[in-house]
Design brief:
Blueprint (H helix, E strand, L loop, with lengths): L2 H10 L1 H8 L24 H13 L20 H13 L11 H9 L13 H17 L1 H5 L16 H23 L5 H25 L2 H21 L5 H28 L5 H22 L3 H21 L3 H29 L5 H22 L3 H20 L2
Helix pairs in contact: 1-8, 2-6, 8-9, 8-10, 9-10, 11-12, 11-13, 12-13, 14-15, 14-16, 15-16
């Protein structure tokens, strides 16, 4: 499940949720219409009459009396219909609100399922809220199915300085609720699941209130309820055993901090042994600087940047560890070369002795040990264990000398 897919699915259902939270009272009967074409000023047909009835029923009255008023709708789309339709578009954040009933308006109407989209408060909230919350619960369960859908042309409210942040928080909450439900399903039986389920229920209640306030145009209330919903959803996810993004980033930063401390100790030990650690100290200092920046980004809730900085600090710390005693690499290579030369000389001496029928038994034994020590030295060098490589190479040289001494 990718974050992009979830966001697309959440976007698809945004207007559908609008229908739920804006559901009319029983006194506001919905108008059932089917629109198969765009409608604009001058259009004629029964679909125009149906649109006029829908607007009148929704509270966007075309005329108080006479032609176009409730019960006197016509098949002609004239100025009064265009004005009423423009108000409906504005109330539902359809942009541009031109008074033409085009693809965006038809999509919004379809999403609202013919329901009344007026943001005015209803007069019987208790019954309506119960129905709407039940429908919202169903929509949340359908989120996974919507994740696979191809994203349509956006018909969500156009972002503005007053609503874009609220809408993002609402969509983030939908994602987090989905994650929390998944985590609760996966979690083993635990006492924390009780609080997780309670917080999940609170999140859905707050989400319902936030969406309803959003489509009523009360952005202050919507923002507050949306933040509460998101906080409750996160708490539910974590109580069920999930690891949030900020928790993961903090853990990664702490792991890198521990790595830097370990490398610093290794540098100090190598320095005490007289090894070259100048480059290692430079690198570990850079690693600490990047880590400090990472913690700052974390405090600013810039989690992606903090994660990148943690990765950079980790890489620098590993490089610093590799540079400890870097001069030993050249020394190890030189010792291995000397060991190979010593073995070549010993082999030549053994062959000469064998040609002279001299006793070479012990010499061959030492020569075999020398070759084995050289193999060990080369393996240690390949593993970047240069101190061990030097020690094995010196052993190889000693065995080669012993082989010659036995002749």
């Amino acid at each position: 499940m990718t974050r992009t897919t979830i966001s697309s699915a959440a976007g698809i259902m945004f207007f559908t949720i609008a229908a739920v939270v804006s559901v009319p009272t029983t006194s506001e009967a919905a108008t059932s219409c089917t629109f198969s074409r765009d409608l604009a000023l001058g259009a004629e047909g029964e679909d125009v009459r149906c649109l006029q009835k829908y607007l009148n029923d929704s509270g966007f009255t075309i005329a108080a009396t006479g032609v176009g008023s409730p019960g006197y709708e016509t098949t002609q789309m004239k100025d009064l219909t265009v004005k009423a339709l423009t108000k409906w578009q504005e109330a539902n954040s359809i942009s541009p609100a031109t008074g033409a009933f085009g693809p965006k308006s038809r999509a919004a109407f379809a999403a609202l399922a013919g329901g009344v989209s007026s943001p005015k408060p209803t007069t019987t909230p208790t019954t309506v809220d119960t129905e709407a919350k039940t429908k919202l619960e169903t929509l949340l369960l359908q989120l996974k199915a919507l994740q696979a859908a191809t994203p349509p042309v956006s018909n969500t409210p156009k972002p503005t300085t007053s609503n874009s942040g609220v809408q993002k928080t609402i969509l983030d909450t939908l994602e987090m609720i989905d994650d929390a439900e998944d985590q609760i399903d996966k979690a083993a039986t635990d006492a924390n699941l009780i609080s997780a389920k309670e917080e999940l229920s609170d999140a859905k209640e707050d989400l319902f209130d936030a969406i309803r306030a959003y489509f009523k145009g009360d952005m202050t209330r919507a923002a507050k309820d949306a933040e509460n919903a998101l906080d409750n959803a996160r708490d539910s996810f974590e109580d069920a055993g999930g690891e949030s993004e900020d928790d993961k980033v903090e853990r990664d930063l702490d792991d890198v901090e521990e790595l830097i401390e370990q490398v610093e100790d290794a540098i100090d030990d190598a320095d005490d042994d007289g090894k070259n650690v100048s480059e290692a100290r430079k690198l570990i200092k850079k690693a600490q600087t990047e880590l400090d920046k990472g913690y700052t980004a974390y405090e600013d809730e810039e989690y992606e940047e903090a994660e990148d900085l943690a990765d950079e600090a980790r890489e620098l710390a590993n490089d610093a560890e590799d540079e400890i005693g870097s001069d030993n690499k050249a020394d190890a290579k030189a010792e291995i070369r000397d060991a190979q030369d010593a073995i070549d000389d010993a082999e030549a001496a053994v062959e000469d002795a064998e040609d002279d029928d001299d006793d070479i038994g012990d010499a061959k034994s030492y020569l075999s040990k020398a070759k084995k020590a050289l193999d060990n030295a080369e393996n240690s060098y390949d593993d970047e264990e240069y101190d061990d490589a030097i020690e094995h190479a010196e052993d190889a040289q000693d065995y080669a000398k012993d082989a010659e001494d036995e002749l």
